[in-house]
Design brief:
The protein has 128 residues and is mostly beta strands. It is 0% helix and 48% strand.
Length: 128
Amino acid sequence: QVQLLESGGGLVQAGGSLRLSCAASGRTFSRYAMVGWFRQAPGKEREEREFVAAISWTGGSKYYADSVKGRFTASRDNKNTVYLEMNSLKPEDTAVYYCAEDPTVPSQSLSNFRPDYWGQGTQVTVSS
């Protein structure tokens, strides 16, 4: 079973940047996996977590929510870590950010993405 650990959150002024990391331990990401980023804004329930971005482990497919397109970039390295580069941050980006993995995503399509494993989250706070 994989364990996911997010890091890189913090407090930043509007317009600033942060880079989140999601490191996997216990096993490697499957070649058929997709790893996504979700966020839970203050006052929202777990069921209201918002999709932010996702990347296939092969790196060939990347998906973004409209609210972050052009500002956030998902990437991965060869050492079982996925990143979320966040630029031009806005106060409305304030949330706890979670990474999540679906080990087998048919056709690497976002419509088939059903995360099975979640990290504990990292807080991102953007001040105005």
